[in-house]
Write a structure and sequence with these properties.
The protein is an all-beta fold. About 0% of the residues lie in helices and about 55% in strands. The chain has a 20-stranded mixed β-sheet that branches. A three-stranded antiparallel β-sheet has the order 1-4-8, with no helix packed on it. It comes from Rhodosorus marinus.
Amino acid sequence: MIRSLQSSTRIRLGRSVFLRRLQLSSRTVPLSPGGSLRVKLREWKLKLLIQDHDLWDRATIECHGPENGGESEQIKPEEPILFADEKTNSVRLEQPTSQSRDGFTRSYLWKLRQPSEVEVVLKIPGKISLDLEGGGGMSLNDKFEGEEHKIAVTGGVASVGKLRGMRIVIQACEGQIVARQLLGSLIVNTRKTELDIKLLQGPVNTLFMDKSTLAIGAGYTERMEVFATQSSVSFDHLRGSTQVMSRGGAVKIGSCDGSLHVDSIDSIDVTLSTFDRVDLHSERDVRIGMPDSPDADLHCFSPSVTVDEAINQSVRTYCSHDEISYGKLEERNVPVLVARGGKSIRVEPAIWMSGFGLSRLDRNSPPTARTLRRDRTA
């Protein structure tokens, strides 16, 4: 586990210290300018690239063992590699570029007398780039800010707190990733993976999903493209331009502000707050939720089209058989919704203020995390 530690017991460097009753121990590890800190926790590999060179000497590594028993040896490597193994209950710091007098690379071992989970805490000040890969359990609860972050998961579970950067790359196979906040352009490539993102905010996002599950709480983006194969895709709230191409797997969107294009061979369930243009193409059922008083053109093409009476009184055009010429988009003064359902299309008033969504006072505000909230009175 990697997390922040508010209180710790520090042992001075430059001497070896053995503790009969170990409660907390820590190591302060200076990093060379422009250097990187590589960490291996269980089966995970973590590389942190320090970007603020004037802060590298404030980086610390803290290793914590059980309250009953243990011993520790303090060292000060120049370019450390830290290994923590929960199965063998050990933490090892290596200095690969340094050699002892007999020519062997020095390694330092911290062993626990009793089986216990090893906890390693990294404190890195300033901006860093995060490079994380592995196949075991990992939790990153801190906030990381840098130019680029990479996360690769194979058959494991990763929990990420807040990542901010120009570019965020996620690759996963038969894994599970839960992210609280991803702030930056996102690139995703997953297979047989569950990806759960509470908040996504970035200019351009591209996601490739294969036999996976995608769940995004709130997505604020200029452009988002999702390419899904036999995958389930769901959004609680979307703002911006979104395109979803699905070849198998349901598509569900709780509420949407902006333009939307969905092409799916499975069912589509969309609730609209306000919108510029929406195109829905499905070989199965389509359900559309619209505001109580929409000012829009609604065109539906399906053998079975059902429009709620409250919606039917407000829309400009409704057609279930004839093709319609839309004209140029820039000449239109009202939004357009086009739905082509292979089986049936159901259009009904939207209860889009429930769950993750925007109140009527917020829907014209700038897309920030503050506009995301739960309407508990709904």
